[in-house]
Amino acid sequence: MKKQMKNTQDISRKDALKKIGSYGKYAALTAIGTYALLNPKKAQASSLSSPGTGFLNRIK
Amino acid sequence: MKEITILYKVFEDKTISWFQNKNEYAVLENTTAVILKKLNKGIPINEIAKTLSDELDVPLEKSINFVLELEKKFFPQENSEKLEIANNYKNAERPKDFEFIKYYKINDIVFKISFLSDKELSLVHPKFAHLVIDEVTDFQNEFEVFINHNDIFLYVNNVFIGSWDNCNIHYFQGKFSMELIQKIHQKEENDWLGVFHASAISNGEKSMLFLGDSGNGKSTSLALLQANGFTCLADDFVPVDAKKQEVYSFPAAISIKKSSLETLLPIYPELETTAEYNFKRLNKIVRYLKPNNNDFLAHLPCHDLVFIKYEKDAKLTCKKISKIDAFQQLVPDSWLSPKKENAQIFLDWFEGLNCYQLTYSNNEEMIKTVTEIFNNDL
Q1: What ipTM is given for this predicted complex?
Q2: Which of B20, B277, B278, B347 is the best residue to mutate to test the A interface, defined by the most A CB atoms within 10 Å of its own CB?
Q3: The pTM is what?
Q4: Per-domain residue ranges of chain B
Q5: Which of B173, B164, B78, B166 lies closest to B124, judged by CA?
Q6: pLDDT digit string (tens) for B335-363?
Q7: How far is CA B340 from CA B229, B241, B351, B367, in A?
């Protein structure tokens, strides 16, 4: 498939802000609305490589 | 809206918040944390949105939507369902006869642990086999482990602790380990800040935690370090207390994967004849190495977290990493106390830690770097 090339001519920051208009302002909201939720384990756990997680085979 | 308990701590350019209702942490932009504070205080949404609108130069309507979204996300009206891991199914009859009774000596404390069959034995014993004693005159604690109707039960000193189904065996093992450390160190669950999925070593004065995904080389590094003058404090299950935020010793053996044997056999020839266990589903074969610790009551302060990675042919690199990155890696892999005071202590303790990423392939260079971190020479 032929790739469509767009005009990649540089524009100034001022012009860029004009072009995106109010979307640029909402980007500030998007930025402060980005967060990470972190949940610790609900109980103490061994790692899954501890002996006998229901599938233990002693081979030696 | 009813006020909920939230703790806030600014790290670098972000705010970490802790929500007591869910024992949940959130990494937020500072502005967002301020909005949550205002919402929690009951300040009207319009007022909060107006300030935000002026501050960011966005339309008021957009700010209102934003604040409403935050309220919906962080202050839900209904409590989400509580996840129960232990079944609390107490009615199973306790067996009168157990096929295996083992006595484990940890410092001067003797534990009598009864296993109904070899199945229960296999779930616990291999990591503690090095602590077994044959001749017993007295014991201080008695654990009973038995399977009944597809659930595994744990009793400690005749008290029902919990029951877990086949999918939650790792939580049974975690609870077993927790009960063990509580008896060894004479502490209750609320006395602990958390339990970390890490390896812990000490130089006799302080401790250091190694973290990282399974297979990154935590246990192998620990084994190498304990052969070079350091002491193994804990492998896989690292408890930290709330009162002094010290790393406590846990007496389990170090699990060594088959892929590490070539590196470790010259140092630990006993691994050649040690029992080998095959975790087929995880495609892992491990052997257990006795820790060199001779004082399982030891506990030491910790100032350094090291995310360690063994990478074939890698040139050693050791650099400080952002606390936010370290926090995001640490929390989901840890049990952290749901008690408010402990959550605050955890945030304060974490603020004071140095966090490093250490990648290596040469063992001597790794040992040298760890020594430098201990000596604050980096």
Answers
A1: 0.89
A2: B277
A3: 0.89
A4: 6-74, 100-186, 192-374
A5: B173
A6: 999 999 999 999 999 999 999 999 999 99
A7: 38, 14, 17, 38
